[in-house]
Amino acid sequence: MPADSDALLLESARVRRQRLRGAFLHGTLRERRTTRDNVRRFVGSTVLAALACAGCAGWSFVQANTGDNAAGAAAVEEGTG
């Protein structure tokens, strides 16, 4: 039985050391588990998705207008424009 209590004592000391190290490196548990972190991730992801969509729409707009301008310039050169 003494071996079990010694092992239990050593295990609890190890766990306490791990928790203290984690608190020192990452802050208290309340600070580590905030919903603000998840909200920031969500907002950041939404902004990134909106920028990607705007970039795609802008590229499509430029490609469509460049194609129309090239066709219009060719028609003007032929004299049909």
Category by helix and strand content: mainly alpha
Instruction: Give the fraction of residues assigned to helices.
Output: over 70%
The tally of helices reads 3
How widely separated are the two ends?
100 Å
The biggest beta sheet is recorded as: none
Write down the domain tally: 1
In total, the number of strands is 0
So what's the overall shape? rod-shaped
Explain what you see.
It contains three helices and no strands. The termini are far apart. It has one domain. With 81 residues, the protein is mainly α.
How does the SSE layout of this entry go?
Layout: H1 2-26, H2 29-32, H3 35-78
Task: Summarize it.
This protein is an all-alpha fold and 81 residues long. It has 3 helices and no strands.
Q: Any key phrases for this structure?
A:
81 residues, mainly alpha, 3 helices, 0% strand, rod-shaped, transmembrane, membrane, transmembrane helix
